[in-house]
Design goal:
- By secondary structure, the chain is an alpha/beta fold.
- It is 36% helix and 13% strand.
- It contains nine helices and seven strands, in the order E-E-H-E-H-E-H-H-H-H-H-E-E-H-H-E.
- The protein has helices spanning 40-51, 63-74, 94-98, 104-107, 110-119, 129-141, 144-155, 195-198, 200-212, and strands spanning 2-6, 25-28, 57-61, 79-83, 166-171, 186-188, 229-231.
- It has a seven-stranded mixed beta sheet, sandwiched between helices.
- Strand 3, helix 2 and strand 4 form a beta-alpha-beta unit.
- Helix 1 crosses helix 2.
- The radius of gyration is 17 Å and the shape is globular.
- Residues 100-105 and 214-227 have low confidence and may be disordered.
Length: 234
């Protein structure tokens, strides 16, 4: 079966390369150029209508998970799996929403923003040299216009609904979207924001199990002896 992947802000399909796709066929959705002033919700629906069937499984990383949430709200037959993301505006750190009124990203040169992102890669929880190189390439090759729009869209996001057809996986050591702010279905111990690269093995187990069981959240995920992952019962 096809599973549709939405990457994070500024990222592309390379962040997913360490996952095990043996039980499904990944389809990596390319970003469409955003319309001026387009909301996150409207963009998500436009992306869905262009690329994604009505009964699809979507995996959304970070920003892509917010889009997957908006798609799931409109299309109840879609299954959305969020990784290192937020389902509602209340799961975002308050400082992100402050930027709605003080948009520093609009006042600073993009070269300076890239320099800053290179200096804070430790916040994304990436330690492997290969993962660090991928992160650096993503920053170098990111689209300034798209990123500026996406930051504005996130800071103006007003969603308060967590759809029942969404499953949320989060890392306990996420510094970008802190674990304490979210209500997730599955937690990965010591997982950072880019655990999709750093802890791909355990995350692949989560994804394969959830995808193979059509009833979201009913699958049983095995944990290692050191309890690297655990589930919250409904």
């Amino acid at each position: 079966m096809d599973v549709f992947f939405l990457s994070g802000l500024g990222a592309d399909k390379t962040v997913f390369q360490f996952l095990d796709y043996s039980s499904y066929q990944p389809v990596f959705v390319d970003w469409l150029p955003p319309h001026k002033g387009e909301s996150l919700a409207d963009y998500g629906i436009r992306l869905k209508e262009e690329f994604i069937p009505d009964d699809a499984v979507i995996v959304g990383l970070s920003f892509g998970g917010m889009l997957a949430t908006e798609i799931a709200k409109r299309y109840p037959d879609i299954k959305s799996i969020l990784i290192s993301s937020a389902k509602t505006k209340n799961e975002l750190p308050s400082i992100y929403r402050t930027g709605k009124y003080f948009p520093l990203h609009q006042w600073s040169p993009y070269a300076l923003q890239k320099w800053f992102m290179m200096r804070i890669k430790w916040m994304f929880g990436i330690n492997r040299i290969e993962a660090q190189k991928i992160y650096e390439d993503i920053i170098r090759n990111s689209n300034p216009a798209f990123n500026q729009w996406a930051i504005d869209a996130i800071r103006g996001w007003e969603n308060t609904e967590a759809p029942s057809n969404v499953i949320h996986i989060h890392g306990t050591h996420d510094k970008i979207l802190p674990y304490k702010n979210v209500q997730c279905d599955y937690a990965i111990k010591k997982g950072g924001h880019l655990m999709v690269m750093e802890q791909a093995n355990i995350l692949s187990e989560f994804l394969n199990n959830i995808i193979e069981n059509k009833e979201l959240g009913l699958s049983t995920i095995s944990s290692s002896e050191n309890h690297s992952a655990y589930r919250f019962q409904a």
